Amino acid sequence: MSTFNRYLLHFGMIGTAGFVVFVTLILVDGGSLFNPFMLITTSLSIACFVLFMTLFFYVWAKPVSVTVKVEEKQEFVKAVKRIARIKWGRKTVIESDDSVSFRYGNKYKDWLVTPAELNFNEDKCVVNIPSYYEEDILKLKFKHKRIDKITNK
Predict the structure, then answer these.
(1) 132 in helix, strand or coil?
(2) Is the pLDDT of residue 115 over 90?
(3) Which of 17, 55, 74, 89 is a good FRET partner for 121, with 20 to 30 A between their CA atoms?
(4) Which of 35, 60, 85 is the last residue of a domain?
(5) CB contact set of 51 (below 8 Å; sequence gap of 6+)
C-alpha cells in the first residue's frame, strides 16, 4: 500500500470516528437540533480535514532515495543510528548483512510511516527514507570525511 493510501486510511478513520460522534450526539438529542445545513457543513469539514491532513503528511513522508558512496560501512551506520534514535525517534534497529532498517517498534507506527532503510552494494549505500529525513542524511556529508559523494535519485 502506498504512503498516500496509508495516510488517507488513517485520517479517514479519524474523520469517520468524528462523524459517528456527531451522529450519536444528534440521536441522543432526539433530532431536535438536526439541521441539514449542519450535516452538510460537518461532512464537508471532515472531508477537508481528511484530505488536507493526508496531503500534508504525505508530502513529509513520501519516500526518497539517496545514494551515498562510503568507505567505512560501520562508521556510516553508527552515524545514521545516532540520528535515527535521537532525532527520528526510531528505537528498533534490524540489521542484516547488506541492509539496516530503523523502526519505531510499534506495529501501527511501522505500518503507517515510510521505513528508513540502508541498503549496501559494494562501496555504495542506498538510503530509503521519508523526504523529511533527507536533510539529515545530506548533512552527514560535512560531518564525516569518509563519505565521498551524495546524490539524489
Answers:
(1) helix
(2) no
(3) 89
(4) 60
(5) none
Contact 79, 102 (CB under 8 A): no
> Using an 8 Å Cβ cutoff, are 22 and 56 in contact?
no
- Report in angstroms the alpha-carbon separations of 15 from 11, 85, 104, 129: 6, 32, 25, 28
* pLDDT tens digits along 12-59: 999 999 999 988 888 888 777 778 888 899 999 999 999 999 999 998
| Interior angle at CA 104, CA 137 and CA 79, nearest 5 | 30
Measured between alpha carbons, how far is 87 from 45 in angstroms, rounded to an integer?
A: 33
Percent of the chain with pLDDT over 70: 92
Is this prediction's pTM over 0.90?
no
Give the CATH number of the domain where residue 118 resides: 3.30.70
Query: 3-state SS of the chain: helix, strand, coil percent to 5?
Result: 55, 25, 20
Full DSSP string of 63-78: EEEEEEEES-HHHHHH
* 152 confidence band (pLDDT: 50, 70, 90): low
